[in-house]
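Structure representation.

___
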Amino acid sequence: LVKMSGKPESKGALQGLKVALAVAGIFGSFGYFAVLQEDLFKKSYAGQKFKATFFMMVAERGANALVALFFLLIFGGSNFKIPIKEISVSGASQMLAMAASNEALRYVSYPTQVLGKSCKMVPVFLMGILIGGKKYGWSMYLQVAVVTAGVVIFNFGAPTKPGKGGGSDSAYGLSLIALSLALDGVTGGLQDRVKETAKTLNKNPTARPSMFESMMYTNLAGAIIALVFCVATGQLQEGIDFCKQSQEFIYALSAFSISSAVGQCFIYFTVTEFGPLLLSTVTTTRKIFSTLYSVFRNPDNRLNQMQWTGCLMVFGGIIIEMVAERLKPHDKSKKA
């Protein structure tokens, strides 16, 4: 066994700086990302609204892959064999989940979309029981029940706005959110498989792709799938024509793509350095901030009392998960 000889205080300070960097990076990049995501579809450019979802996905996923490749060239990879097939399938499902979510933004209010995405643990919960044979404690059942009830209350409390098809929550938009959640669940399962496949492929229990390898292959696969759909639906030419008509849109799309790429770097950094629990805490807080900021920023997104009740229930359910995780005993008596 090798013992660490560094000063605990300086080591703790370094960890604190890393946490601060991760939180600031995720909040900053994805806070800006959330604003641009809403503006891309709801703001008018040269008198028109952008509708080519897959064109936007090609740009966003492509920027993510290029940024990851850039850092791979600088810092190098893991030197392990990478399960590219599993990562690619994961990237495809992740891309489709985001495409459904972005498409839904045109048919539901942004707070509804964010709250819906906060229910990501529902499909994961069900797939864990039905496919993975997992068993959950009472806190997880309580969390799922509270969050689901909160979303139902939030959506039923949404007022109908006559004459504004894009301002209220439509059945089509809500179904897209449901599809996005299902694909998120599939993506989570595939990502777990990637970790196990990497260990088997390299015959090494510590083998895993580096943060930039996972980021690059995931986004490259997503960009390819998005491009296929973009061409098949005619959105490639539509997107190109839209860019020719509005230079302002090109700037907005570029900023959106760059903020996504920077945000993903911080997300992979957080997972690598601290694990998914801290990431869950940070991203959950970011979703709360994004939702409330959207409400105060856009008068059309005001919430009534019933919606606020649902909102608080959703966030309360998420807090149950975080508290339960922190109270859970961690076994440190593994192999010496």
Observations:
- The first helix runs from residue 8 to 42.
- The CA atoms of residues 106 and 166 lie 6 Å apart.
- Residues 1-5, 161-166, 331-336 have pLDDT under 50 and may be disordered.
